[in-house]
Amino acid sequence: MSEVAQPSVSRRAVFLVGGYERNDAAGFFRRIGREMERFCKCWSVEATLGVPVEAAEASATTAVADYRGPDGVCRSEITFLSFDDIVKHDGARPFVSRLLAYLVAFFDYVVSGTMFRFFATNWRFALYFLYPLVMLGLFVWFGTITYRLVDWIGLPGGPLLPGLAGLAVTYALGRSVGRRYFVFHLMDLWSFSREHLHCRRPGMDQRIDAWAALISQRMAQSAYDEVLLVGHSTGGALILDVAHQLAERLAAEGRPVAFQLVTVGSTSLKVALHPAASRARSRLQALARHPGIRWTEFQSLTDIINFYKCDPYARAGLVHQRSDAFPRQFQVRIRDMLERRTYRRIKKNFFRVHYQFISANSRRYFYDFFMICCGTRPIDAVRGHRLPLSAEVDKTAKATS
Rounded to an integer, what is the distance from CA 171 to the centroid of its chain? Predict the structure, then answer.
C-alpha cells in the first residue's frame, strides 16, 4: 500500500533549547552558519542563514533560514532559546560552593535510588553520571600518591611539604584535565538538574515562562505550516516544560493546542526518573492529553549522553490513552550520518558525538537536523531509514557528480 502524501512545508518556526552549556546565541548561529555549508554540499541544495535578531526580554534570538532544493522552497525562522547566562552564573561561583552543591546532588541521586534507575534503564548513561565523581577521585588519588612519595623522600618540614606537593598536583590536574574534559562543568550540570527538578531554580522557571509567552505570541502573529519545539541534551527536558506552559497558554486563550515536539539526544529521564520530579511528570502527563501535540524522539547507541531505546514517557511511569505513539521513537546510527574518515575521528569523543544530533551530516540519512529544521518535508514524514527528500534530489546529485 502506498503512503499518504505529506503536505509540503513552506514556512516553519523552530524553537530550540540546547544543552547546559556556555555557548550563547551568537556562538550558536556562527556554528549553524558553518554547518549549513556542509548540509548544502551533502544534499546538493541551497540554504542561507539571515542575520540573527535578538528578543532580549525572552533571552531568545532568531535567524531566518531560506532553503531551496528540488523538493521546493521553505523559509524557517530558527529561534535559539538561551540560558547561557544561568550556566555562566553557576560556573562563576567559588569552587568550594560548586563542589558542595555537586556532592549534595550526587548523593541525592544515589540515596533517592535514581542512580540505580539509571543503571536499570541505560547503564551507559549511568557511567556518564559517575564520570565527574570518578575524575575528582582520580585527581585526589594522584595528589595522595604525590604526598606519599614526597613524604617517603624524608624532606625536612614534616608533613608540610608533602601536603603542599599533593595539593599542587591535585590543583594542576583540575586546572588542566578537569577543565579540558568538562569535569567541573558537569558538576554544575548535575547540581542544576537536581535543583530544577526540586523546583528550586526560580530563574529558570521564569525563563521557561518567557519562552512559552514568546512562542505563543509568534504563533498568533504568523501562520506557520509547522511549529517545532526542539530540545537537545538537557534541553530535551526543558523543552517539555516549555511545551507544557505553551499548551496551558493556548488552551486558556481558546486557541488550538497544536505543535510538534522534537527531542534529540535527550536526557529528560535524568529528571523524570527522580522520585521528587513530580512536577515534571505531571507536566508530561498533561501534554499527552492534547492530541494536537505530536512528539518525535531521536536516540543513538553511540551517544552515551542519551537514553537509547528508552520510551521517556513510559519509563517515567506514565500511561496515556492516545492511539498514536507518544513519542514516536527513532534510533539513529551516527556512523551512517558521516563520512567514514569523519566518524573515525570523532567516535571516541563522546561530547562531539553527542553534538552530532544538531550538526550537519556529511552523508545522506533519514535523520538530518538541518533537513528537519529547514527542508520542505514535515517532521511527521520522517520514517526510519528513509530519506526525507524526493527522489529528485538523488537525480540532481548524480547529474552534478
Answer: 31
Secondary structure, 3-state, 227-259: EEEEEECCHHHHHHHHHHHHHHHHHHCCCCCCE
DSSP 170-214: HHHHIIIIIHHTTHHHHHHHHHHHHHHHTT--HHHHHHHHHHHHH
Decide: pTM greater than 0.90: yes
162: preceding bond cis by omega (within 30 degrees): no
Give the closest residue to 36 by CA, choosing from 364, 361, 378: 361
Amino acid at 317: G
In 3D space, the residue among 243, 365, 241 whose CA is nearest the CA of residue 300 turns out to be 365
Question: Mapping DSSP to helix (H, G, I), strand (E, B) and coil, where does residue 225 land?
Answer: coil
CA atoms within 13 A on the CB side of 227: 21
Nearest in space to 382 (alpha carbons), one of 104, 15, 6, 74: 6
Instruction: For the chain, report the end-to-end CA distance as a whole number of angstroms.
Output: 34
Half-sphere exposure of 37 (CA within 13 A, CB side): 5
CA-CA distance, 338 to 167, in Å (whole number)? Answer: 44
Q: How far apart are CA 315 and CA 310, in angstroms?
A: 7
Q: Is 191 exposed, middle or buried (0-12, 13-18, 19+ CB in 10 A)?
A: buried
Measured distance CA(191)–CA(98) in Å, rounded: 8
Residue 382 CB contacts under 8 Å (≥ 6 apart), including other chains: 296, 330, 366, 367, 372, 388
* Cα 53 from Cα 194, distance rounded (Å): 33
Bin 199: left if φ > 0, else alpha if -120 < ψ < 50, else beta: left
87 Cβ contact partners less than 8 Å away, ≥ 6 residues apart: 20, 21, 22, 188, 192
Query: What's the pLDDT tens digit per position in 337-372?
Result: 999 999 999 998 989 999 999 999 999 999 999 999
pLDDT digits (tens, 9 = 90+) for 270-304: 999 999 999 999 999 999 999 999 999 999 999 99
